[in-house]
């Protein structure tokens, strides 16, 4: 029993020493002004913050997020097929895909999917 206790203390001591060494060795020895400044999506951080940017970048990002979340919502619908009635599953799936297609049609009509206006 005493031997196990000494082994646990030894293992904890070794792990603490290794963590301490990794902290010391992973310190960066130099700091560059460019590396310490925040990255702002390719815009020059030294220029004025009031420069207008194209709203189209924002719209493309929102469209991507909507259709990316859609994939995360479709996976549970596939698993639900085993647990529910086929008619109920078909109605839920059809309604969900109909909402997505209506959103896509609306974005298409608003010319949000065209890169150049």
From TrEMBL:
Known catalytic reactions: a ubiquinone + NADH + 5 H(+)(in) = a ubiquinol + NAD(+) + 4 H(+)(out)
Coarse class of the protein's main subcellular location = membrane
How is this protein situated with respect to the membrane?
Multi-pass membrane protein
What EC number(s) is this enzyme filed under? 7.1.1.2
Swiss-Prot/TrEMBL keywords = Electron transport, Membrane, Mitochondrion, NAD, Respiratory chain, Translocase, Transmembrane, Transmembrane helix, Transport, Ubiquinone
What general EC class does the enzyme of this chain belong to?
translocase
Localization annotation: Membrane; Mitochondrion membrane
Q: Does the keyword Electron transport apply?
A: yes
TM regions (residue ranges): 6-25, 55-80, 86-105
Q: Which domain of life is it from?
A: Eukaryota
A Gene Ontology CC term for this entry?
A: mitochondrial membrane
Q: Does the keyword Signal apply?
A: no
Query: What Pfam families does the record tag this protein with?
Result: Oxidored_q4
**By its UniProt entry, which InterPro entries does this protein fall under?**
NADH_UbQ/plastoQ_OxRdtase_su3, NDAH_ubi_oxred_su3_sf
One of the entry's Gene Ontology molecular-function terms is: NADH dehydrogenase (ubiquinone) activity
Q: What does this protein do?
A: Core subunit of the mitochondrial membrane respiratory chain NADH dehydrogenase (Complex I) which catalyzes electron transfer from NADH through the respiratory chain, using ubiquinone as an electron acceptor. Essential for the catalytic activity of complex I.
UniProt lists the family membership as follows: Belongs to the complex I subunit 3 family.
Q: What is this protein called?
A: NADH-ubiquinone oxidoreductase chain 3
Q: Which organism is it from?
A: Glyphodes quadrimaculalis
Lineage of this protein's species? Eukaryota, Metazoa, Ecdysozoa, Arthropoda, Hexapoda
